[in-house]
Amino acid sequence: MPDAPADPARPLVPEPAYDHYLVGLDLRDRDVVIVGGGSVAQRRLGTLVAAGANVTVVAIQPTPAVESHAGVRVVNRAYRTGDLDGAWYAMAATDDPEVNAQVVADAEAAHIFCVRADEARRGTAVTPASVRRDGFNVGVLASGDHRRSAALRRAIAAGLGDGTLAAAPEGHHAAGVALVGGGPGDPELITVRGRRLLAEADVVVADRLGPASLLDELGPTVEIIDAAKVPYGRAMRQEAINDVLVERARAGKFVVRLKGGDPFVYGRGFEELIACVEAGVPVTVVPGITSAIAGPAAAGIPVTHRAVTHEVVVVSGHVAPDHPDSLVDWNALGALRGTVVIMMGVERLAQFADALIAGGRDSATPVAMIENASTSRQRTLRATLHTAAEVARTEDLRPPAIVVVGDVAAFDAASGTTGGERSDGVGDRSASEPGMETDPAAR
Ligand SMILES: C[S@@+](CC[C@H](N)C(=O)[O-])C[C@H]1O[C@@H](n2cnc3c(N)ncnc32)[C@H](O)[C@@H]1O
């Protein structure tokens, strides 16, 4: 459980949205104020002064090291509102949480980014663990987990030091295409191979879904093609994507087709593979973590659970149950007792729920809807088959979302509960039937 916010003016960012934007500040000749003159100030002063900042420390009792630091102005008194005037950057680093909260509040009012040393999540900036070597300045942030960022910093420092980590130029991979599953969105949920090939790409053709933030890490010479913007109509768009893959590979480039989830799960990956094979272009497939499984997992829902469900069916909601193009036997799905995972199902949720109920599924069957799974915008709605469409409507559920139907949809990993008894008549689940819940912190 996260701490209850002590400062209601600045509530904790719900997990896992604690994701900062890493940036380099030009602090030359700019005022920076550190409130507090202890070990935090001492650690930061060196790099701030080296960056050319005009540093002022406001502290009742600065340590001798802070007091005597070259190039630092020290104000020996308690903090007052107004001390940040003119500053571009601030740090609240006293041992008094109330003072730190006041500094952050004043900084926020003045639009000054401010680090809060005692409770990083309540500040508006955080200091990355950093290492300088050979002209590089590497910063590491780990969603507030200082031990992890410090550990990675140590590893980077060691690697740069002993040469096992080196900046290799791009474009040394043989020409061809890699169809890479990027996972559901969290950049850490791509495979090791996928990430390595991405780092070696000359061209990246990227989908709308998937780990978009990884594109930020690509070198400046890498050509990024937004597949969602490739022109022509829907059917033609796939052809145009195929063409671009083949054409760039024939031009000698190594092309990564970065797709959301797994390339072969509603990803049209096999069409791209066929296009490459037919064109004689070398192609490799790197499977990805599909959102069909990872989406529920990110919300604390296992798609199978011993003695509860022995089957999981992933189904496309791309067309309505009665659409002539539908290849899904919704009646058969309604007769299942296990988990049904509906992808692309937001728009027609009412029709799918009706079809499952018509096929025999209990209308009280739990449903979970996970929007933007594994990203900072993840949201989970809970309902039953009977209420799902209404809950989705009132809560304005938007794609991309995964809809999980089945007893596991009532599970809650945060509390370690299974949300009640089975919906097939075993036990009484009325007392624990889930209503609708939006609880990103419960992951
Ligand atoms: C065209 S399919 C692509 C599926 C992808 N290949 C995979 O394996 O996850 C798009 C659908 O995947 C689901 N989806 C993909 N990423 C998602 C995410 N981060 N959160 C929730 N649903 C997601 C949604 O149902 C969305 O409509």
UniProtKB/TrEMBL annotation:
Which SUPFAM superfamilies does UniProt cross-reference here?
NAD(P)-binding Rossmann-fold domains (SSF51735), Tetrapyrrole methylase (SSF53790)
The residues covered by the Tetrapyrrole methylase domain are 177-388
Task: Please name the Gene3D superfamilies in this protein's record.
Answer: Cobalt-precorrin-4 Transmethylase, Domain 1 (3.40.1010.10), Methyltransferase, Cobalt-precorrin-4 Transmethylase, Domain 2 (3.30.950.10), NAD(P)-binding Rossmann-like Domain (3.40.50.720)
For the region Disordered, give the residue spans: 414-443
State its Enzyme Commission number(s).
Answer: 2.1.1.107
Show the ranges annotated as biased composition (Basic and acidic residues). Answer: 421-431
**Record's keyword terms, sorted:** Methyltransferase, Porphyrin biosynthesis, S-adenosyl-L-methionine, Transferase
Please give one Gene Ontology molecular function term for this protein.
uroporphyrin-III C-methyltransferase activity
Residues annotated as the enzyme's active site = D207, K229
Q: What is this protein called?
A: uroporphyrinogen-III C-methyltransferase
A Gene Ontology biological process noted in the UniProt record is: methylation
Q: Does the keyword Lyase apply?
A: no
Name of one Pfam family that matches:
NAD_binding_7
Source taxon at top rank: Bacteria
